[in-house]
Amino acid sequence: MALTQTREIAAASRLDNVKYAIRDLASVANEIVAQGHKVVPLNIGDPNVFDFRTPPHLIEAVHRAMLDNKNGYAPSPGIKPALDAIRGEAARKGITSVQDVFVTNGVSETVDACLTALLNPGDDLLTPCPDYPLYSALLTKLGIRLNTYYLNEEDGWQPELDDIKKKITPRTRGIVLINPNNPTGAVCTRAMLQQIAEIARQHNLLIFADEIYDKLILDDDEHISMAAVAPDVPVVTFGGLSKNYLVPGWRIGWGIVSGEAATVRNYNEGIQRLLRARLCANHPEQYAIPAALEGPQDHLVEVRKKLRSRRDLPLSGAIRRRVSVVFRRAARSTRIPASIFQKAMMCL
Ligand SMILES: Cc1ncc(COP(=O)(O)O)c(C=O)c1O
């Protein structure tokens, strides 16, 4: 008689608290759509869903790579033309103490590799609040206690330095700085970056500078790279094609390791070991990196213009009033306070 396995296969308990609000929300929305309601999906930062088109020269570069049979495995850190282009980008960003660069399947994989390579059980990492939920999800997966610092609404959502200082423990290994910030859109001033760098120096911390939105600044702020103002401090700068170059589905990101060579050598070797274990990042798509970083940047003008007008629309009086009516109605039907809906909107 054939045996049937009936015992449920349980997911590992360390995943119990792994949440990713932006996508978890989508399953709730699907249920509402199934009930016949119309839902406008504002939760996922996918420009291609909102009528943005990938610059054609990127598509041509990847198409050519595929026709040239660049369809096998790539070197684990990335292909040379991509690595050279990322080094060129680091120089344009003013990062002078580059020790290594590597390519990943999206910045999401850069973050995964960099956090995994750094943190031991009992360590902690300072992450911003409100946060981009990838960080808390990965920390939870790694069994690392969350240690968040506040972004101060009264100060244009700049990091609250006193809170950072207060939260540092003997086991704090680093600080995550998302600049320009998701979800607030704030851009750090040079003075702010210098003060965070000083805290890192005093406490031997590594800084993760998530700069995935560095070319999508909508106002007059200048983007300054953390690694450029603090060449001596160990920094991993995260960048990628998803947002600036309108290809989130290609899953292309990178890391730029900078600081004193002797300080970052061992940690960088840890990252490289993880990159070798996962073989390589998407291969033909890596050919879009030099095309993107060294080619025409014209699309960015149009993208910023469109984003600016879409950002301004919900801030206008009439729309604000309508949104707050929707929040109140949602609050009534779910018995969840309207302020929670407001906060949830901000985190998207
Ligand atoms: C701040 C931030 N970091 C990282 C990512 C992940 O980007 P990727 O598509 O390159 O994995 C996102 C995506 O929305 C983001 O907003």
Please, could you describe this protein's structure?
With 348 residues, this protein is α/β, with parallel strands linked by helices. It has a domain at 56-294: Type I PLP-dependent aspartate aminotransferase-like (Major domain) (Aspartate Aminotransferase, domain 2). It contains 13 helices and 8 strands. Helix 5 links the parallel strand 2 and strand 3. The chain starts with 20 loop residues before the first helix and ends with a helix. The chain binds pyridoxal-5'-phosphate.
Helix and strand arrangement:
Layout: H1 21-34, H2 56-67, H3 80-92, E1 98-104, H4 106-118, E2 124-129, H5 134-141, E3 146-152, E4 158-159, H6 161-167, E5 172-178, H7 190-203, E6 206-210, H8 226-229, E7 235-240, E8 253-258, H9 261-277, H10 288-294, H11 299-315, H12 317-334, H13 338-346
Parallel strand pairs: 2-3, 2-5, 5-6, 6-7
Antiparallel strand pairs: 1-8, 3-4, 7-8
Helix pairs in contact: 2-10, 3-10, 4-5, 4-9, 12-13
The structure holds pyridoxal-5'-phosphate.
Residues 45, 106-108, 132, 134, 178, 182, 210, 212, 240, 242, 248, 253 line the site of pyridoxal-5'-phosphate.
Characteristic key phrases:
single chain, alpha/beta, Aspartate Aminotransferase, domain 2, eight-stranded mixed β-sheet, 13 helices, globular, binds pyridoxal-5'-phosphate
